[in-house]
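Task card 7
Instruction: Convert sequence to structure tokens.
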Amino acid sequence: MEGAGSTAPAMTGGATTDVCVVGGGLTGLSTALKLRQLGWSVILLDRMYAGFGASGRNAGHLTPTIGKDLPTLARLFGAERARNLVALVQTAIGHVEETIRNLGIECDYEPVGNVMAAVHPKQHRTVDAAAKAGEALGLDGELLDGPAMRRRGLPETFTRGYFMRRGGILDPGRYVRGLAVAARAAGVEMYEQTPVVQIEDADPVFIHTPRGRVRARAAVIATNAYTPELHRLRSTVLPVHVSLFRTAPLGDAARRAIAWPGREGIYTAHEILESYRLTRDERIVGGAKRIRYAYGGRPLGEDDATHAFIAAAFRARFPALHATEIAERWSGPIAFALDFLPAVGCTGRHRNVYYSVGYAGHGLALASYAGTMLTDLMEQRDGPGSALWGHRKLPLPPEPLRWLTVRAINGLLERKDRRVDRAVQAGAGTTERATR
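Output:
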């Protein structure tokens, strides 16, 4: 997203359309493209520019991940529903691959799969449970024990893994900008630097901006972590902040030192996962590891302590890269629901305001498929997305209970992860002493 900015005008005056899409990320662009394929007129509004948020700045892993984890998915929703959800996300991966191919989007996509990896034997049971649940739910995956991890040449600090074959890694900025170009070419009327100040419940619905108004048969809320600022779905999703980094190019010696010939995406088996992927120019993009939430969901800036914490984890996983510089760091909001599943449905007095939000950090596949899910819903047509839009959400509590709930859940997850990380550090210390 370096050098990205507005390429469409701000909206002034009034306009009429079939559907007004609010938000120019993966959800909004995929929906606008699908509606145009069906012959509907579309106006898309974004308060910054297309791809500004997590859609353009995420970790770049296209994974068949849905919900908190596979065993929890089966426990919470039952085997049949969980199988439908897994089938949905695998369908969504195929949709992304087809979109990239058909639109000719140059986003460095590599269909190399992703590995959920343990960093200590304490996590082996978690990996084994994920592999067992994945097999039962129809996920295309394979359990990798220690020798299998070494045969694949995965970095040695990862001791066991569950390899998910579907999907891979890509440059999310290039991907979302490619979708924006395709949307304009398809006839989507796009306005940037145009915040929405009100979605008025009416039939037709009116979408108000500071200097204009759109009259539409239907509206689509595609604002993910920014949705509560529209005074919509406040009891459904909340914004939390995550942080990422990108290293300088590794160089030939460092690249050889870590092996990793298959270039699979890696994310750890922590409760709050760490993610790592290689870029086309041989850097590592990684991060997460810590989630931050501010009272009332207010915006948060960069946090030096969080970045230092993430950098320390990176150094621990890749000790051969101790001299590799971390070149960029950034943070931003993503959206969660209490059940870790996206919220897809319609709302409003006239049932003409549709939404797909709350991807819990796994939005590359499902946000890209949101256009299909939402158009199926609009046309009352059954489809894979019905596994989500038929689901009732557990409402979030109001503040201050919300802040206390997030703090309690986050604290529990962090404590579990700290126990693993302390065990890793203790093992590293023992190895270092033995070497001396």
